[in-house]
Design brief:
By secondary structure, the chain is mainly alpha-helical. It has four helices and no strands. Among the domains are: about 35 residues; about 45 residues, no CATH class. α3 packs antiparallel against α4.
């Protein structure tokens, strides 16, 4: 094949024919060749896989519907209500004291410039 003098990077199309007859149509499938690894050559597998997907989807929807959290019995607050310190709020919430609550009370009192032992305001700088 000779193309003659062409500039660099010039695309060339070649058309070649085969002297073979077109093969007979094989088994016709309702899907493209892309789905052959999924369904294989069996046509009966398509309804089976569709029914299985439907059953699994319905089960997943039921599980998702039941997986919601119940409404909390009290409103969500990002801080204790006015007049209640952090340790008091944690004690009401947990119904038991712990070390972090004590530290929170000391820091809360320090931020308000109060003495934790007397509860009175001390003169600040």
């Amino acid at each position: 094949m000779v193309t003659g003098a062409l500039p660099a990077r010039t695309p060339v199309t070649i058309r070649a024919g085969l002297d073979l007859p077109t093969p007979d149509a094989g088994d016709a499938r309702p899907w493209t060749a892309r789905f052959d690894p999924v369904f294989g050559p069996s046509v009966w597998l398509l309804p089976f896989v569709a029914a299985l997907a439907l059953v699994m989807g319905t089960g997943g929807a039921r599980l998702a519907r039941n997986a919601r959290e119940p409404k909390p019995p009290f409103p969500l607050l990002y801080a204790p209500p006015p007049g209640i310190g952090p340790a008091q709020g944690a004690y009401i919430f947990n119904e038991s004291p712990d070390r972090e609550d004590f530290v929170a009370t000391i820091l809360y009192a320090a931020s308000r410039a109060q003495s934790p032992s007397t509860g009175t305001r001390e003169p600040g700088p």
